[in-house]
Specification:
The protein is α/β, with parallel strands linked by helices. 14% of the residues lie in helices and 15% in strands. The longest helix has 11 residues. The chain starts with 5 loop residues before the first strand and ends with a strand. The mean pLDDT is 92.
Length: 81
Amino acid sequence: LSLLPSLVVRNDALTSLPAPSATSSTLTRVVARTNCLTSVPVGMELIPELKVIDLKGNPFADGAKVSTIRRFGEDTKIKLD
């Protein structure tokens, strides 16, 4: 997993994503469309190479959308409905 550049999990009814670890340092893209996510794990914003997070089709509340976008900053493109 330490060399995984992308994590793609679509239409899987996931309620959470795995917490990031030191082995996540090469992860550049997370696509988790159409699941049951309401947040992203704490610490995911610290993955240095992560540039795209696509979470469309998940039931994020408006407040959770705003806080998620703020956590990641301008260098990471976040896609939410």
